[in-house]
Write a structure and sequence with these properties.
This protein is α+β, with helices and mostly antiparallel strands and 246 residues long. Helix content is 22%, strand content 13%. The chain is globular, with a radius of gyration of 22 Å.
Length: 246
């Protein structure tokens, strides 16, 4: 588990209940049989019925496009035609652990874009971004979110809190947003996005759309911002700060 820094608050210890009998195993015991749940073909049929003759759904202007933070003009906006489900999900990068980046020699996985690390986790800096800071947290062992061991899952929760706090201490950051996408890579990666301070158009989920279009922040600026995160993490959860260009 993550070792706290000297100023960290220690949680109270909960006594372990004594029982002569082993707890009942509830693994994979569910009340809703999968056979009763809706198949994706039925889900798609509902979409197709709501679409026009060209397969396009109407833009829900009362939803995100109607927000004052929506980054695009609504006039002329239309959705792409919805395609039917494919036969199967495509393979992702690193689906085979032997071909994942984590299979490399740990001494070669690093460099000036590692913000922080310990024996189990690595926090990396996205060097191509228009945000003040954009970080990616990954376990060093090959796990996805659905296969993360309980010990790592507990530590991940602690790290999410500590990283979020550290990102919001970067002077140019107003809020932190947390994202998890898993369609491209099979190795778990949580993305922390620092929303620029006082730039209210960038609030909420449209931030990632803005990020694609913003001018790139110079690497030395990103590294300086990330040092704020690294130093706070070392104080609060231990571990090691990355070199970040130094």
């Amino acid at each position: 588990m993550t070792q706290p820094g000297a100023d960290a608050t220690q949680p109270p210890t909960t006594p372990t209940p004594q029982s002569a009998e082993a707890p009942e195993d509830h693994t994979d015991v569910v009340s809703a049989p999968p056979t009763e749940a809706e198949e994706v073909e039925a889900y798609y049929a509902r979409i197709a019925a709501a679409a026009g003759a060209d397969g396009r759904l109407p833009v829900a202007v009362e939803e995100m496009p109607g927000w004052d933070i929506y980054p695009y003009e609504i006039e002329g906006l239309r959705l792409k035609a919805v395609r039917p489900p494919v036969d199967e999900e495509p393979p992702r990068r690193g689906e085979d652990p032997a071909e994942c980046w984590c299979a490399a020699d740990p001494d070669t996985v690093g460099g000036p874009e590692v913000v922080w690390s310990n024996e189990r986790w690595r926090l990396g800096l996205s060097s191509d971004t228009g945000l003040p800071v954009m970080l990616v947290l990954q376990p060093l062992e090959h796990h996805d979110l659905t296969t993360l061991p309980i010990e790592l899952a507990a530590e991940m929760g602690q790290l999410v809190v500590a990283i979020a706090d550290a990102v919001e201490h970067v002077p140019s950051v107003g809020r932190v947003q947390l994202a998890k996408w898993g369609d491209g890579g099979a190795h778990l990666h949580l993305v922390f996005l620092g929303r620029p301070a006082r730039m209210l158009q960038f609030r909420g989920s449209p931030l990632i759309d803005w990020e694609d279009n913003l001018p790139r922040v110079p690497l030395d600026v990103l590294q300086a911002n990330a040092r704020v995160v690294a130093e706070r993490l070392v104080v609060h959860v231990g571990g090691r700060a990355g070199t970040l260009g130094r």
